Amino acid sequence: xxxxxxxxxxxxxxxxxxxxxxxxxxxxxxxxxxxxxxxxxxxxxxxxxxxxxxxxxxxxxxxxxxxxxxxxxxxxxxxxxxxxxxxxxxxxxxxxxxxxxxxxxxxxxxxxxxxxxxxxxxxxxxxxxxxxxxxxxxxxxxxxxxxxxxxxxxxxxxxxxxxxxxxxxxxxxxxxxxxxxxxxxxxxxxxxxxxxxxxxxx
Amino acid sequence: xxxxxxxxxxxxxxxxxxxxxxxxxxxxxxxxxxxxxxxxxxxxxxxxxxxxxxxxxxxxxxxxxxxxxxxxxxxxxxxxxxxxxxxxxxxxxxxxxxxxxxxxxxxxxxxxxxxxxxxxxxxxxx
Lengths: 202, 126
Hints:
- The complex is a heterodimer of chains A (202) and B (126).
- Chain A is 17% helix and 37% strand.
- Chain A is an alpha+beta fold and 202 residues long.
- Chain A has a four-stranded antiparallel β-sheet, with no helix packed on it. Chain A has a four-stranded antiparallel β-sheet with strand order 2-9-6-7.
- The two termini of chain A are 23 Å apart.
- By secondary structure, chain B is mostly beta strands.
- Chain B has one domain (2-124): Jelly Rolls.
- Chain B contains one helix and eight strands, in the order βββαβββββ.
- In chain B, β4 (50-56) and β5 form a beta hairpin.
- Chain B is globular, with a radius of gyration of 15 Å.
């Protein structure tokens, strides 16, 4: 058995948009084994999303300012050690920012009744730095520094289905009250019968 | 006697919104490919801007448009868990090719960076 993936990009342009789409499954698919999602092409401006997403930079600037304002303790060494400021960096990490809900995804096989996959799609963990005492002004926890290994959501769907019908409901635009263009990538992993050998070929 | 080794492909991303292709050919002593992982000197740029297509022995492992962030892990992930497991994949002709696509998404400002596809292999130590 060999695993392959189909990527379907679902563009969202309007606030609260409800978009349906179809994913064509190849004839060679034996069974569908997993689903992943990702957010792409998201533009930002001065809205709530941008404020949350880039709050880490504000914390960083605030911490640097606090370090500069605090008196340095003179120690014999090349690097001065700053005393904790009135607002230490650690205290600034104790503000919890919940993940923003981007939308809701539902998938169903056209050959079968009922939905086999439903997910609240989130873009990123905004509270990656929450309560992290290892935070420094030069190393703010972000998704690309402290993110976990992403895993596929396992599903078991017969590969005889020809089309998967999907439905995505925008929640981000509803929450911020304006149109917000972005796209959702839906990754469908499936298995094919790998009958040919994979020995060296020219 | 077998031994795990790490090979890699470096892709220099020198211009925004372009595709860059690199490939390597593994040695004949490589018995199998066990895992893949991505890293970069600018993880923030790769996280938001990157997508890639990876093929091994002409078999497509990740299709075009597969986001790089799906293959990234942070510093708190154990080393042995950082890799996307491919199982004991036979290297075939040993050619591994990556097409890396940089795409502006509005959240980052482009600056030249490099991307590395790390490949965990098992070699025959003769």
